[in-house]
Structures are given as structure tokens and as C-alpha cells.
């Protein structure tokens, strides 16, 4: 196991290479973690998450969790650990303009609580995390430079949170705010279950059971929040992972079809072309 660590204003950035490691404990900082290859298992109470490339996991400060890497290949995990004071200062600085971002008012001495989940690694936050990783690997340790990137990283996460959580909750057709919050948590568990098991033969019953929702309730509320069905979301995740394998591995297309859980190469090619306007071979 090899780990490089730098500290910036009480924040930490970790770049870990390991094929066999485990950790159990309490997070003392807010954690953003992603993997460049392979997979990492996370356990949050009764929830079991599997983090693959093209996504990142977010954990709150004070969360009891366990993580495990057990692989034949060396896995590269990159993590940003944000100090609670750094997050509180940022939230206080934007509270007057973004006081409705979270479900409670922001005060300088309070610690915001976010929805712990697997988020898509795309757009602005993907760019910022890639720049942080590249700077670290190139030996950049300037507090001014890295501090600016960390601030940008947190800002990007807040924007993503507004899109993926706050706006989704507001789209649910429930008058009671606490009901909306609870349903959104269960839908997030459903999404995490799909993200963690996208390459397996999972059913609607499996997803509903994991999220403690009936199948009909799952279908109705998932469509309200995400403007797509669970099956459409599963297909989206599989296609996103296919792009990763096409770009970063030498697997043949038929092998990738098996890896991501598709049963038919022709239907995969058709869906890929309809989604991205190129065939898998042209994309590669």
C-alpha cells in the first residue's frame, strides 16, 4: 500500500494505491472519494455501497463507516477531506445568497449535514477533482494554489448538491417537508443500490426492498424526482461505465457488454449510438 498525503489549511488530500486495505472508524472531516479503476466497498451502517469509476461518494463529518479494497489489481483511490471549519466558513459566506440550499438555515458555528450518497463524477466537480489530483501528482504543494482548488471543489459540490438533492426534493409531490425529505433519502438509497450493483441482474423488487419502498411507490416517486424510471437510470449508469471501459481499457466491445450487465451486444450498440450519436467503436 502506498499513500501520499498533503495538508492544506487543516484539509487533507490523499492519493492511495492499494490492492488490499481496510478501515473502520469515524470520519473527522467531510470526505469526497473517487476511484480511477476497480472498485471500493463502503459500509455505512446497514448500507453497503460499491464505488466505481465515474462516480464519487460523499460522507459527512462524524459518520461511522468502513471501507475495503480487496483486488487482484492495484486500485487508485483519491480523497479530499474537508475540515468542518472550512465547510462552515464557506457556508456562512454564502448563507445570505443561498440560505435555502440545505433544509435548515446556515450559521457560522453549525455543521451542515448533506445527503450521504454516490454522486455522478461529471461537469465542474469532475474537472476540479482532476486538477487537484494532477497537481498533487506533479508535486504542487502551494497552499495558495491548492487552497483555491479546494474552495472551488466545495463550491462545485454545493452546486451539484442543489441539482441532485435540493431540486429533486422540491419536485416530489408531497406537501409535508419531512415527508419529502424522507422519500428523497429512500430514493437516494435506491440510486446508490443501482450504482453499486449496475453490473448485476437486479430487479425492481430488489431496488424497492433496498430502499424500503413498494414497487409502485418507487416507480412513481423516482420518476418525479429524476424524470426517468429506475430502469432508465440503470441503463444510463451502464452506458456511462461503458464509456469508461472503452476509453481506459483494452476490453473488446463484447467483453464490455458482459462486464456492465447487458445481455445483448446489438441492443447495447443501439442504445449507445442513440445516447451519444456515435457507435462504441467510433467512441473508442
From TrEMBL:
What is the designated name of this protein? Answer: AraC family transcriptional regulator
Question: What keywords is this UniProt entry annotated with?
Answer: DNA-binding, Transcription, Transcription regulation
Q: InterPro entries this protein is in? A: Homeodomain-like_sf (IPR009057), HTH_AraC (IPR018060), Tscrpt_reg_AraC-type_HTH (IPR020449)
Which SMART domains does this one have?
Answer: HTH_ARAC
State one Pfam family annotation. Answer: HTH_18
Q: Which domain of life is it from?
A: Bacteria
Enumerate the spans annotated as HTH araC/xylS-type domain.
188-284
- Which species is this UniProt entry from? Pedobacter albus
